[in-house]
Amino acid sequence: MNKIIDLRSDTVTKPSEKMRLAMYRAEVGDDVYGDDPTVNRLEELGAELFGKEAALFVTSGTQGNLLALLTHCRRGDEVIVEANSHIFLYEVGGLSALGGIMPRCIPGDNGFLIPESVENSIRSENVHHPITRLICVENTHNLAGGAVITIEQQNALRQVADNYQLKMHLDGARAFNAAVFLGCPVAEVAQPYDSVQVCLSKGLGAPVGSLLVGKKDFIAQARRYRKMVGGGMRQAGVIAAAGIYALENMVERLADDHHNAKLLAEKVANVKGLGLDMRSVDTNIVYCKVDEDYMSAVELCDKLREKGVLANAMGSDRVRFVTHHDVTTEQCQQAAGIINEIMMADR
Ligand code: TLP
């Protein structure tokens, strides 16, 4: 069989040889003592790229988001999140379980929280109410098909936050994909936020880790919470080196992933039994709606797997394809051909 074409997620990327070499050569120390020079360098680089005072290397996007929520909020506070956000749907309810924080879910428009809806959800001063503390934004938005929220849209939300003295956190797991799509430095994407979580382990290809960036005192407090949840790492320079390599070498190539996603989407857009809105394909994620008269999303994924293509079923009728460093343009074309074949055979 040909090589497996793994389109389940950009998290499946494996460190390249050059990245592994950087890891092998990394100078290390005990990071809980602040002694790991490679972790320190990664955090400095991250803070600089995002235009923030400080950064913290964390184990995952989930941990980065959790630490941000714990640091911004107190128990009983309310946080405004988009109804299909990763923080609400896929982070094991950590904000409530570990932080005693209440999510207030607002359905967005293609992932974008409408400023008026946000404003209408902010709690007024009343003894019965929790305190609205924070607005969380996801850019790019995973469940909205990697949709990019523009700088203007972000600024409109910041305006609301400022009017009510709220903090803003960006789940920027794929913030670099947004920056590459918008053609701006990632600091511009990060600008309206008090804190940003960015994953190194997705399209950037590092094996582990995320950065949380923000003001110095915010990061100092997040560091304490990281220790509390067991995230104090020791000779973490071995993995931080991969993060540095990713930030220095893997950002611009995200444009290739976006190109491949578009290509894949174009090739399956007109396949009978599949629904796909080309306008939703901004970056590296493609969602297809599978007509139930043909098959379910799980059945399509099973058939694809038999032919060497891996994809994720999202619910009963949607399949997600994600492009990344470890799939080539040719493989995306090949995958589109296989999708086409399967759908045609079912007629
Ligand atoms: N997303 C993963 C899965 O958890 C769904 C994926 O394959 O897309 N924010 C966003 C927007 C994410 O997409 C993810 C991971 C995270 C946070 C969490 O990052 P990790 O997996 O490092 O905890």
Could you explain how this protein is built, in words?
- This protein is α/β, with parallel strands linked by helices and 347 residues long.
- The chain has 2 domains: 17-249, Aspartate Aminotransferase, domain 2; 253-345, Alpha-Beta Complex (Aspartate Aminotransferase, domain 1).
- Helices cover 42% and strands 17% of the residues.
- The protein has 14 helices and 13 strands.
- It has helices spanning 17-25, 37-50, 61-72, 86-89, 94-99, 115-121, 151-163, 175-182, 186-190, 216-228, 237-249, 254-268, 297-306, 329-345; strands spanning 5-6, 54-58, 78-82, 102-106, 132-138, 167-172, 195-199, 210-214, 274-275, 285-290, 309-310, 312-314, 318-322.
- The strands form 3 sheets. It has a 7-stranded mixed sheet with strand order 2-8-7-6-5-3-4, with helices on both faces. Strands 9-10-13-12 form a 4-stranded antiparallel sheet, covered by helices on one side.
- β5 (132-138), α7 and β6 (167-172) form a beta-alpha-beta unit.
- Ligand TLP binds next to α3.
Strand order of the largest sheet: 2-8-7-6-5-3-4
Q: State the distance separating the first and last CA atoms.
A: 26 Å
Give every kind of bound small molecule, once each. Answer: ligand TLP
Largest sheet: 7 strands, mixed
Compact overview of the structure:
The chain has 347 residues and is an alpha/beta fold. The protein is built from 14 helices and 13 strands.
What keyword list fits this structure?
42% helix; single chain; Aspartate Aminotransferase, domain 2; four-stranded antiparallel sheet; 347 residues; Aspartate Aminotransferase, domain 1; seven-stranded mixed sheet; globular; binds ligand TLP; alpha/beta; 2 domains
